[in-house]
Amino acid sequence: MVGNASRGRLHVEVRRQGASTVVSPSGELDHHTAELLREPLEECAGRSGARIVVDCSRLDFCDSTGLNVLLAARMIAEAAGGSVHLAAMTPVVARVFEITGAGAVFTVHDTLDSALAE
After folding, report:
1. 3-class secondary structure, 111
2. What's the pLDDT tens digit per position in 5-15?
3. Conformation bin of residue 85: beta by default, left when phi > 0, alpha when psi is -120 to 50
4. In angstroms, rounded to a whole number, what is the distance separating the alpha carbons of residues 49 and 82?
5. What SS3 state is found at 64?
6. Cα separations (Å) of 94 from 37, 43, 50, 57?
7. Domain of residue 98, CATH code
8. pLDDT of 79 over the 90 cut
9. How many Cα neighbours within 13 Å face the side chain of 20?
């Protein structure tokens, strides 16, 4: 699956790379833009055994709505025997995961390459 969606402050690209689906949001992930990520992420997560890597390297901001989108996708993926990995978080996004403790429920990789190599 290859595709993309954008609405002003958030652009989302989806592509297959090896055994993984890479979802790359860029811009601001918040209440107003979360649906742009939710739809492709949940579609991918619902596939049996899906391995999703969210490349966070171009994500400038993530609020609680964005965090909930990622957590919901993780739950959907795990219920279908799959997984959601986070890669290359920017410091501002990593801080949200640190403050909330949500980083403990994801497999987090320093780089996209390391996430794909696993």
Report:
1. coil
2. 555 689 999 99
3. beta
4. 4
5. helix
6. 18, 25, 24, 11
7. 3.30.750.24
8. yes
9. 20
> Tens digit of pLDDT for each residue in 95-105?
999 999 999 99
DSSP label at 102?
G
Gyration radius (Cα) of the chain, Å = 13
Domain coverage including residue 28: 3-117
Pairing type for strands 51-55 and 10-17 reads: unpaired
Q: What is the mean pLDDT of residues 14-43?
A: 95
Given a contact cutoff of 8 angstroms between Cβ atoms, the answer to whether 85 and 112 are in contact is: no
The domain tally of the chain equals 1
Which is nearest to 77 in space by CA: 20, 32, 31, 36? 20
